[in-house]
Amino acid sequence: MTDLLFVIYPWIKSLHVISVISWMAGLFYLPRLFVHHVESVARNSDSEAVFQMMERKLLRVIMTPAMIATWLFGLILVVTPGIIDWTAYWPWTKAVAVIAMTWFHMWCAGQRKAIETGRNTRPGSYFRKMNEVPTLLMFIIVFSVIARPF
Questions:
Q1: What are 115-149's pLDDT values in tens digits?
Q2: Where are the alpha helices (DSSP H) in 41-63?
């Protein structure tokens, strides 16, 4: 099994990076859709139906499969022997940031549902601020993996 993991390592790492890029694209875009939805769209209008469809498809068709693929390929990389030095701090900071990114994904799903059902009470400015969360987490993840300052 170890030999197989070493042979497929570059492919799994490539698929992991592709999945992360897809997931991040959605995490950057969905809160922006929320901003425009809550600021510019009248309830029960044709525009609202379009926004709801875009938000739902972005979450279900792109973001969630990309998140699952990111986790799957990432966990395969984690179990590949000799790839990660678990005595260093960087894998742990990355892990915490990835868990936080997953929480943010779930938060987005909850906000989408609240907007769809008319239960949202948050203004566009709130979603603008929350839109910065994945960027901050991305910095932590990238610096942890590449610069390894910890």
A1: 999 999 999 999 999 999 999 999 999 999 999 98
A2: 46-57
Residues 6+ apart with CB under 8 A from 69: 15, 16, 19, 22, 23
C-alpha to C-alpha distance for 5 and 137, rounded to whole angstroms: 28
DSSP 85: -
Q: What is the DSSP string of 38-83?
A: HHH--TTSHHHHHHHHHHHHIIIIIIHHHHHHHHHHHHHHHHSTTS
- Please choose, from the candidates 23, 26, 48, 25, the residue with its C-alpha nearest in 3D space to the C-alpha of residue 36: 48
Rounded Cα–Cα distance for residues 26 and 17 (Å): 14
State the Cα angle at 25 between 22 and 31, rounded to 5°: 140
Q: Which two tokens stand for residue 139?
A: 């910095």
